[in-house]
Prior knowledge:
Blueprint: E1 17-21, H1 39-53, E2 57-61, H2 76-86, E3 90-92, H3 99-106, E4 113-115, H4 131-134, H5 138-143, E5 149-152, H6 163-166, E6 174-176, H7 178-192, E7 198-202, H8 207-219, E8 225-228, H9 230-239, H10 246-254, H11 258-271, E9 275-276, E10 280-285, E11 288-293, E12 302-305, H12 307-319, E13 322-326, H13 339-349, E14 354-357, H14 360-368, E15 377-378, H15 382-389, H16 395-404
Parallel strand pairs: 1-2, 1-5, 2-4, 3-4, 5-6, 7-8, 7-13, 8-9, 13-14, 14-15
Antiparallel strand pairs: 10-11, 10-12
Helix pairs in contact: 1-2, 8-11, 8-15, 9-11, 12-13
Amino acid sequence: MAKDFNTIDDFDVEGKTVLVRVDINSPVDPGTGIILDDTRLKLHAQTIKELSTKGAKVVLLAHQSRPGKNDFTTLSQHADALSDLLNLRVKYVDSLFSSAAIKAIENLENHDILLLENARFFSEESLKRSPEEQSKTLLVKNLSPLIDYFVNDAFAAAHRSQASLVGFTVNTPSAAGRVMEKELTVIQDALDNVEHPCVFLLGGMKPEDSIEVMENVLSNGTADSILTTGIVGNIVLWASGADIGQVNRDFIVSKGYEDMVERSKELIERFGDKVKYPIDAACEIDGERVDVDVGEIPNEAIFDIGVKTIDFYAKEIRDAKYIFANGPAGVFEDPKFSMGTEDLINAMATSEGFTLIGGGHIAAATAGLGLEDQMSHLSSGGGACISMLAGKKLAAVEALKNSKK
């Protein structure tokens, strides 16, 4: 089937300079600067190696963290790590479009790979603007004359309309890299060809995303059942009329999520028992995990779904033909409260249905359990994946489509 965006297959890259936007944003030890997890580097290795093997002069553009964070650092470590993974030398220049960077690009030979500095060192990168406006930034204006093609492989950042993601698509022939191509194809195909019963497992700490997904997939008939956990579960539980304890209500209000309670009430009224919420919860009392039924929740913080909810949700998952999951069920980093997240991931891994893990913390938890190969698809992008599930258009993908037009 013809795609509405170009891929690497549409261009002859031999002898051409190809700028590739990758997302190799990685956890870094704040003390040593050493990369702690090379998952994303491994992911993009296929696109980079393929372009280099085809004789392209490969220029990599990437970001690491954001200003003000302790892992906001240069990409010199990343160049070394990529060199090891690819078994090819990845050159590095500590700027984006200085005379040194421009000279390094101009001096590239076929098969060479060069990594430019952290794109977020450049202040214009933080501005969200249209592709046309981004094409006028210094980054795009300085690099565009040096390149023949732009390849966007950064699916994990595809929901952002930043200069390095959308600016080059305006005046440079542009294509999706292999990571971007696979993510868009698999996720869109899954949404277009859902088999029922279809279950959405939604948790984590970003309820606004999950509520938007719920509104979208319930309204369009994609979902037969929504299983809520994490802060999302607490919000829906409160919306159902349950007493979740003052400390949990205060937390929801302090985060500015009170309107999510009202939106959840409307969803419960419209879709009834398709919206499912915990029947028990795990709190920390005297340093221990204590599971309590809904209706008996003390004024203590809820850190996980309870064992009865785990059993109830796991059965729903095992009976489903399609399962989409986004966000952990609780504070899974604490062994006392990892049970909900781990048991539901295990239920997905042993399910015979199509299973999609939507990036972010739940993807990390899945990989931590060594179960990533048991899933039909493990997405590299939490924000981008959940935006697709919510029916939103991804800025960087729309830019690629417009470039093809």
